[in-house]
Amino acid sequence: MDENKEQEEQVTLPEVAPSGIKEKISRWKVGDYIRQLSIVVLGIVITFLGSDIISNYGKQKEIRSAMQLVKAELEENRKSVELAWACYAEDCTSANLIEKYHFSVDALPEDSLCFGLFNRFNAFTPIADAIGVLKSSGLMQHMSDKQLSLLISRTYDQMNTIGSGLDSYYTLKDKVIGPIGLAMSDQERELMGGNSPGELYRVYVKYQEIRNFVGTVSGYLPVENYTRTLDLLDKAIQAIEEKYE
């Protein structure tokens, strides 16, 4: 009997939640939940927006630095294409004079540019390191000014076009002059070894291959290719200066 009484006394009754907690739970409504959730979501959105702003700022800074390099590269290419075209223009002048005087060495002045026609070689290969970095890094797609991006691409394409044309011209020139040098007699080589450019000219114009080549020089490359190249280069350089300096 005493044992049963002790067991009854040891039975643990379930705890009853304090009235304060009950009141709080009863007051918790859907609106409170939505407000709390909105605060959390807003915090996440602000975090992502801030991250995007920082990331975009970093990209724009990288683009600005890359565009400075592209501008310097375009300026260097402009100097190179001017020099290469000047040499080709001298070849055109020489060829026209040679044809005008019917290949007569005695009719040409000793210091005439005509004598350089057979030893001037100045091709043009555009430098494209900076634009390569801009494209390969993915920065170009983040440029906000798509018109400028298109202008830069067109400028490099045009430089490649004129570069290919000049390369083709000098390849032809080498194919004509190179074999003639190998076919010359010892006496002709002795004449060419002298200091007189007239003697060099006199040896070369004896060959029909040279005469045929002279007739093709002036019309080989249209001057419009050159003027278009300079025009695009100037526009691209100016546009970069206005936007990134």
Shape: elongated
Unreliable sequence segments: 47-51
Radius of gyration, CA atoms, in whole angstroms: 40 Å
Biggest sheet details: none
Range of helix content: over 70%
Distance between the termini: 101 Å
Strand content: under 5%
What oligomerization state is this entry in?
single chain
Overall mean confidence score, pLDDT: 79
Order of helices and strands: HHHHHHHHH
| Tally of individual helices | 9
Q: Please provide the count of β strands.
A: 0
SSE layout:
Elements lengths: L1 H9 L8 H9 L2 H71 L28 H8 L9 H38 L2 H7 L4 H8 L3 H10 L5 H22 L1
Helix pairs in contact: 3-4, 3-5, 3-9, 5-8, 5-9
Write a concise synopsis of the structure shown.
The chain has nine helices and no strands.
Description:
It is a single chain. This protein has helices at 2-10, 19-27, 30-100, 129-136, 146-183, 186-192, 197-204, 208-217, 223-244. With 245 residues, the protein is mainly alpha-helical. 20% of the residues are buried. The protein is elongated, with a radius of gyration of 40 Å. Helix content is 74%, strand content 0%.
Could you name the key traits of this structure?
245 residues, mainly alpha, 74% helix, 0% strand, elongated
